[in-house]
Design a protein that fits this description.
mainly alpha; about 150 residues
Length: about 150
């Protein structure tokens, strides 16, 4: 599964076939890992948050979510730059799901209660590249913040 995903992400002209559900979630998980690593501090708190997001989105057990994150860490290392990575997702994922991706990114970014400039920059870039407008991105952040209070 992640071999095919890496091929899709590294293809300069990817086909427009939709990603399979498991590939889509692996791609999202890899983007969450990239976000968590963007500030140079990929800690246990962020890993736990990624696991929780993945478990909630997919109905996974903690063990299954952790296993998915481990695969995502491998994909993230082998994936091209964020621009191509995110554009590949845009071409393969419906708009509604892309706003869910932005919400998941905010959930991980706010895991430590701090709005880090590196993480915010990556989310803004991902929003733009995913074609998610500023209003929907802001609403995604607000939903995450509301759940955290």
């Amino acid at each position: 599964m992640f071999g095919r995903l890496l091929n899709i992400l590294n293809d300069p002209a990817p086909a427009l076939d939709p990603l399979a559900s498991d590939e889509r979630e692996l791609a999202l998980a890899a983007l969450l890992v990239r976000l968590a690593r963007s500030d140079g501090n990929y800690d246990d708190e962020e890993k736990v948050r990624i696991d929780r997001v993945l478990a909630a989105r997919n109905g996974l057990s903690t063990r299954e979510a952790t296993e998915l994150r481990h695969h995502a860490e491998e994909v993230e290392v082998g994936a091209p730059d964020t621009v191509r990575f995110t554009r590949a997702l845009k071409d393969k994922v419906a708009y509604e799901d892309r706003t869910g991706v932005i919400e998941a990114l905010w959930d991980v970014a706010l895991a430590d209660g701090v709005r880090d400039v590196h993480e915010e920059t990556l989310i803004r870039l991902a929003s733009k590249l995913l074609g998610v407008n500023d209003v929907d991105s802001a609403l995604a952040r607000q939903r995450v913040e509301a759940r955290r209070t």
